[in-house]
Every structure is written in C-alpha cells, then in structure tokens.
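**Discrete fold encoding**
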Amino acid sequence: MILYTMLPEEMIFPQDESSFANQQTIPVEGGLLVVEDIGQSQYKVIRLISSNPHHYLNENYTPGRVIMGKPQL
C-alpha cells in the first residue's frame, strides 16, 4: 500500500501518544500553525500548514522558533 500525504510519518504512525500531548494547532494568517507548549507561555513552532508558498517565507513561522504567548490571528 502506498500512502500519499503531506503529513510526516510520525503524525500518521505515532510511536507514543504522549509525545503529541503538548502539541496544538492554532489558526494564523494564511493557514494553521502546529506548536508545542514548552511552558512559561512559550510555544515552539513545529510546522506551518498552508497552501500558499509565500507563507513559508515568513520567519515568524519557521520550525524550531520559540514564540512568547499564543500566536495571534
């Protein structure tokens, strides 16, 4: 069976559900942002989900970036 998807393998076949317990999907301008709560009102960007390639050029949504407080719409 071949599975064609844009989702990473870890999200389709999770190894441990507790690793995704701190992740949230937040709507932002132009798409969705998957973030991980790392405590003290800080969120680490996991990935951006958008159909517009220009949204991926926004440095605020770079994976690994730490955001103070929840991103605003």
